[in-house]
Amino acid sequence: HLQSLIHKSSRRKRSTGVLWGHAAFSKSVLTWRLIGEGYSSQLSVDEQRHIFRLAFRMWSEVSPLQFVEDLRSPPDEIDIRLGFGTGRHLGCSQSFDGAGREFAHAWFLGDIHFDDDEHFTAPNTGNGISLLKVAVHEIGHVLGLPHIYRSGSIMQPSYRPQDDGFELDWLDRKAIQNLYGGCGGRFSTVFDWIRKERSAYGEVVVRFNTYFMRNGWYWLYENRSNRTRYGDPVSVQVGWHGLPSSGVDAYVHVWSRETDTAYFFKGTQYWRYDSENDQTFSEDPDGQRYPRLISEGFPGVPGPIDTAYYDRRDAHIYFFRGSMVYRFSIQANKLAAQSPQRMTELFPALTPGNHPGSNLDAAYFSYTHNALFLIKGASYWRVVGKRERRMKRSLPYNSLLPGREVQQQWFDICEVHASALK
Amino acid sequence: EKVFHSRDHSDIETSSEHLAELITDTDTAQHFLFKYGFMRSLTWESTRSPVVNTETNSDVFLEDTLSFVQKHSSLSRSGPAEHTLESPDFTRALLEFQRVSGLPVTGVFDDTTKVAMNKPRCGVPDKEEDPIENIETSIITENLNETSEIFNTTATPQTNDTDVQNGTSDMIETAPQR
Lengths: 422, 178
Fold this sequence. Notes:
Helix content of chain A is 16%, strand content 29%. By secondary structure, chain A is α+β, with helices and mostly antiparallel strands. Chain B is mainly alpha-helical. Chain B has helices spanning 26-35, 58-78, 88-100, 111-117, 131-150, and strands at 121-122, 171-173. The longest helix of chain B is centred in the middle third of the chain and has 21 residues, at 58-78. At the A-B interface, strand 4, helix 3, helix 4 and strand 9 of A face strand 1, helix 5 and strand 2 of B.
């Protein structure tokens, strides 16, 4: 096996200039392994694997690439192999130089070697060189990134002592997305979750967070930072107790002077969420048991639905199913007159033909933008609101502005491999 | 075992045999600049071709280095000004290294540059060796590095519009932790 490694290593060319700045891999799921003959003498094997798992996940969170640790396949079939060594090591033609200066190098075909003469440490633990930071850097090379001489870039050639909780910044994300593209995919639903808190002075403060859900996963989206929360996605089961593990179809927040109620819909059923106890109600204060059939709680509304939202202007829930919209009056507890109506009728296109038409993924009212968005696939349409009509009175009520890409508005909502999802 | 006494191994001792050679003078600085792609060759008046191949061979590199050092050591002892070690290529490479490293661009191998060269770094060259392919590398690398200058500011944060649908209280986005 060592003979084979040496032979293969000597045949490998040092990465040539043309390879930097180009995507090294043409597939989206890559395997990796910390090779047995290349364990570090400084950290436990479990710690090393945990750190590498995190390093790969960090790249997954900002690109369409996914990484999975493969402990079974023959070594030749592993896309990215990692190992530690000193001096002449692992059949590599480039020796390490001892403690100091070079801490690692990466080869185009996917091998990463770490100089075990360096004092590598786990993240946020004392002096030494953060193995996590070095691993993220070297994986960047394997993926095709060159050194980048920008303060704050993970691809700087020299090691900078780790700041607490380093992450991939905006430009590093764009660099890798320049090679592999951005992240896409349909969403199950998107919503702003509202909660009321009391400030230190006793004032009621209303806070919100934005959530994107896709099947059994979700992301918290930080509007101020134009990215998702570090470490997302998270399993729905972890963050939203009581909801189906496969996710939901819709979320509705009925919010008025008299009512403040949150509902999740899936299939023909729906749940009411108890935000104080952070779980769904099994029985709410009104004595209703959940899950409950949509047709019982909202007479006249068929399930399953595509999506829904509550419009505070007219106190109606708008349920979307296929090409139709069912307007449900909360006060009357029944469908509005003339419901259902065609989506194209209630939300006409400003540009003819530029309309989702049917089968929406999400109807999302954003408090950040103070606007309603209809989302389908990789596109979204902004619904003309008060602000737009103030500037141009001729715009029809609830008309749709031309569609744009979801990726242009909400950035870096990327999946990770299922094995990395806790 | 490498000897240590602290719980976190932070005082781990490394024998002198395992220490990387420090960059202390222009000789070692030239080797550094050559190794990481800032210089295409080590000598500027040597009749012998430098090793520029895509398979890095540290033994051949060492042999060239030694012959280079021997040649220039004898010259420097004789001391004619026109045979100084600071060739134009070296100076050019040094300037480039200082520029990309954010150091004062002096073209002189000063203490600040020495410190920077001795810092822990990645073993991947900053610039590749093939002069033909290097053009494409330079363009791509420059593009990536230019992008960082264009996008000098962080992404414009979204502002919370307080004109909520029916004008209720200000909405504040919570800042979460990983």
